[in-house]
Design a protein that fits this description.
Blueprint lengths: L2 H12 L7 H5 L8 H13 L2 H11 L3 H16 L8 H5 L1 H5 L14 H15 L3 H12 L6 H4 L15 H6 L7 H24 L5 H25 L12
């Protein structure tokens, strides 16, 4: 697999990172009294420990150039020292706080079955399969979206970025805009994070690791989709309840 084929294979996997139930969350169709389930599962599955996952890739990587890319990402996630001003997991908690949720629930989250399997996959992929897969899963898959092609081909559709006032949590659930600090931080640093992730994959990854990375990315998409199925069900979202245009 040459680098052009590798890039296209990764893009095709990322373009699978969509879910039928997401319009229910972005259009305010999820009952507010069940929205905490979504946030709790996100927190426990990866948000709280995302800096650890990036750190696992860092400590396994023998290439100084790649470690520098990972270190910058890790520093921002863990401290907010480059843009956000606070650790990103702390900023995430402003969502439930601003929505008036019981934040003590986040200290003892019970993962849904598919969420537990997805978390096990993330731990295995970032701990036990080498630095290439750890970097791909943490910086490309978890942080990335179905709009990754735009990062490499500017003519491709970009990820929509509505104003903070139009953010679904603010528009449909009344979250104060000042509680969207994590969203603001992501918008300020994410462009460089996306570029860094792709530089690592395309410029530094050993050719012998490419097939394994694509396979791991495919596993990630499948596990993530199953996880999102469980979250949708727990939040009372069904396919029949969604508008035909969803």
């Amino acid at each position: 697999m040459d680098v052009t084929e590798f890039q296209e294979a990764l893009l095709q996997q990322m373009e699978r990172k969509t879910h039928w139930a997401w319009p229910a969350f972005t259009r305010g169709l999820v009952s507010k009294d069940k929205l905490h389930i979504h946030l709790e599962q996100e927190w426990e599955v990866y948000v709280r420990d995302f800096p650890i996952m990036v750190g696992r890739a860092y400590v396994q990587c023998p290439a100084a150039e790649v470690r520098r890319e990972l270190a910058e990402n890790l520093y921002e996630e863990e401290t907010g020292g480059l843009a956000a001003g606070k650790p990103h997991p702390e900023l995430f908690m402003m969502y439930p706080q601003g929505l008036g949720m019981d934040v003590e629930r986040f200290a003892n989250v019970s993962l849904l079955p598919a969420a537990r399997r997805y978390r096990r996959f993330l731990d295995d992929a970032t701990s036990d399969r080498g630095w290439a897969i750890a970097a791909a899963i943490s910086t490309l898959f978890i942080e990335g979206t179905a709009y990754e092609r735009h990062e490499l081909e500017p003519s491709a559709p970009a990820r929509p970025q509505p104003s903070l006032e139009e953010h679904p949590l603010a528009k449909h659930y009344g979250l104060p805009v000042e509680c969207l600090a994590l969203t603001k931080a992501h918008r300020s640093v994410e462009g460089e994070h996306r570029k860094a992730a792709w530089r690592v994959m395309l410029n530094h990854l050993p050719a012998a690791d490419r097939v394994g990375v694509v396979s791991a990315m495919s596993e990630a998409v499948d596990a993530w989709r199953a996880y999102r199925d469980d979250v949708a069900g727990a939040c009372g979202v069904t396919r029949d309840a969604l508008p035909l245009t969803a």
